[in-house]
Every structure is written in C-alpha cells, then in structure tokens.
Amino acid sequence: xxxxxxxxxxxxxxxxxxxxxxxxxxxxxxxxxxxxxxxxxxxxxxxxxxxxxxxxxxxxxxxxxxxxxxxxxxxxxxxxxxxxxxxxxxxxxxxxxxxxxxxxxxxxxxxxxxxxxxxxxxxxxxxxxxxxxxxxxxxxxxxxxxxxxxxxxxxxxxxxxxxxxxxxxxxxxxxxxxxxxxxxxxxxxxxxxxxxxxxxxxxxxxxxxxxxxxxxxxxxxxxxxxxxxxxxxxxxxxxxxxxxxxxxxxxxxxxxxxxxxxxxxxxxxxxxxxxxxxxxxxxxxxxxxxxxxxxxxxxxxxxxxxxxxxxxxxxxxxxxxxxxxxxxxxxxxxxxxxxxxxxxxxxxxxxxxxxxxxxxxxxxxxxxxxxxxxxxxxxxxxxxxxxxxxxxxxxxxxxxxxxxxxxxxxxxxxxxxxxxxxxxxxxxxxxxxxxxxxxxxxxxxxxxxxxxxxxxxxxx
Length: 460
Known about the structure:
mainly alpha; three-stranded antiparallel β-sheet; two-stranded antiparallel ribbon; 60% helix; elongated
C-alpha cells in the first residue's frame, strides 16, 4: 500500500460517486479505505459502479487478488472485506456479500495452501455461480480471445447476472444448466448496440475469429497465405449448402436414423452387425472387389463403413449401451437435417489438433484451389507447407517428409472419397489426380471455416 493513500487528491481521478463513498469509508476506517481504493483500481480502474459486474468481481476476488497482490491470507481477506464495504456504500449489497462470503475466504485460503488448489477452487466456484458463460452446442469459449469475443462474453455474463438477479435463473436448481445455455444463446443473438445495425454478437465474434485465424495462418507461412487469399471472402461469411449435400450426408443420416429408432446392433467385438453391414452394401453399393462374389460378412470387409462407424463414435453422435449403439441428442439432431448434417460432417473432417490437424487443414487449402493435383506433387506441396510453418520431428529435428505427411493425409482423402466428395480420377495405373467434386469444394471451405471459428486456446 502507499504511505499516504488518503491524501486530498487520492480520489480525484475517480467518478464522484466512488470518490464520495471512499471518503465516507475513510472517515470510519482509514485502513479499510486504503485497501478499498487499491482493490477498486484493479477491479474498475477509473470507471463508476455500473462497470462492476458479478463475473468481474469474482475474477478479481478469486483469481487476481491472490495472484497479483503480494500479501498473506489475512491481508487478502481484509482487502476483500474492505472492497465489500465500499460496494455497500455504492448500494451494491449483493456484490458486497460475495466479498464477505465464506466461499471467498475458502478460495483465498486454497490459493495460499497451493496455487493449483486455488485455481481449481476459483474455476469451480465461478462455474457454480451461474454468471460464467457456458459453452453451447455450437460455440465454445477459448482461452485466447479476440477483443470481439471478450466483449461478447462480457455481454453474456451481464445477461446471466440480470437473470439471476430477477430470479429467472437460479443456479443449483434442477434444470438450471439448460436454462443458462438458453439464455447464453439468446444473448449472443442480440444485435450489437453499435453499427453495423443488425449484426449480432455471435456474428461479430465469429467474423473476428475467422480474421484472426487468417492472420495467424498467413503469418506462419507465405505459402499458406497464398492459398488462403483467394478463399478469404468465402471464409468470412457462412458457406451456402451445396447441391449434393443430401447425397454426401446420406450415409450418416441413414445410420443415425437407425441409431435413433432401434439402435445399431454390434458384434461381440464391437463391430457393426452382419445384417446391418449387408443392408448398407445393398443400399450404397460399395465396390465389389472388396468382397468379390459374396456379400460382406463383417464391417471389416467394407472400409467406408468402418470409417463411418469411427466417425459416429469419435464425434459422440452415438453412445454404446451393451451390444447396441444409440443416437445421442447431438446425433438425433442430425438425422433429419441435411444442412446440420453437412456442416457437422465438414467440421468433423478437419477436427484434429497438432500435426494431424495441420495436415488436414493443408489438404483442404490445396484442394479448395480447384486445380487437380497428381498424388506425389500433392504430398510434396503439403511437406513444403509443413516445413515452412516450422513443423519438426521431435527426435531428429528434421522437417516432416512425404511418408509422414502421406500417413496423415490419406485417411482424410479416404473419408472424402467415402462421402462422394473426392473425384475418382486417375492419371495412370499407379497415380491418381486429386480433385474435389462440386459439393466437395464447398465442404472444404466449410471445413476450413469450422477450424477458423473454433475456440482458440493458448498452446502453453
């Protein structure tokens, strides 16, 4: 603390109502006023009471105070209580109670026992409070935020706080999590209070994420920048559902419809049952050479069906119960909705992280250019992109080679072919020409946009 925090000009920079409250507190308890002015400077800077919301107060008390204010547990509690007295003077009694609560004392004590314990206590308490915006079905919050995302999150937090204050949301009550998500979605779909008129918080957040992804990708590699530049106008706006989306998603929707109705039967080893496999063969007409002159006896005879099954499980569109796969709520939502199924498929095709995710992203960037690529040249182009972006083997320190890239790229190319998104062209007996079908072109852009709008997390 400063030697003389209560000199005449100590509150001159603050709004009149805050300065007045601090002066009244200083007359009663100079030490408390000294603590309170320090806390207010961190919590609200030069702003007035309207700038203080429950979410930001909790973050200050339960995270920044024990991390940024060098003091023992007793003094941290004293700072929290002094801030509570100031908030009481400002007619913010509900927020003042948080400062004085046992919960705040317990969290501060946890930080002093062990920082990891303190951080876990902070996160759990913030989640219980109900004002921390939750992830929704189509939006997850990232730890690395654009300004627009941070502003959107603040807006949602305010709406949740209003709902709690008005008792429309009661944390801890049955069904409150579902209500919280509904309120979050409604807040994101509100129009921004500034031009351009009509743009929602969700749209502003999404556009900012895409632009940040484009900027990061371009900064990492000039080659990637050249591939992204022609796609940028399409990436910044929702991609239209292409003709052919129904055909591309039919296998997924057929399996999910069956999973929703009676479930997908499994063998003892967890593969799809023989009757279902044979019905799929008759419906989708897989290449005969897989099983010559007989019907497939197992899912393992039909590589596309293996990959469809893997995708359903990986995306948690189905859940196993005994010897049957049943559709989850997310899977049920896709069964009858072509657009939702197509967008979900595009996102799932490029959902991996790390080097695998980078290669998948590169495959889409190259194929989205529209020019057919001979296989070897295609893989060499991905190798060049990976090397320029700084990918290196963990043991040798060498950049990835064609074998490493091929092992990652071919599974994605196989999935694209399974859904009719990759042209079956051949350049000769041993070589293919890689090119997307018309619906595949749109799917590639949608997959890239899905990566761009995904939550960005700090790699550390």
